[in-house]
Amino acid sequence: MNRAIALGYSDGPQKGIDALLKIVGLEKSHLYHSAMGDFFLKNRDYTAALQSYQTALLMAKLPTEQRVIASKIEYISHQNK
Fold this sequence. Notes:
Elements: H1 2-11, H2 13-21, H3 30-42, H4 46-59, H5 63-79
């Protein structure tokens, strides 16, 4: 997953999305869904970003992680107004 994220930062968000989608077994990871949300957000695909962040929020266990993800959801909700 780290390699896919690095690829997204170096080669663009779509490359990161494509690389993350190829990884099997991370569907239950809030970090995976958060990374997807970040790349969708960079692509200005607010609907997909919101969906990814909402999934990540449901899976996150630590309050700090939940607050970070919730702040990203709040940011997107302000972008769509």
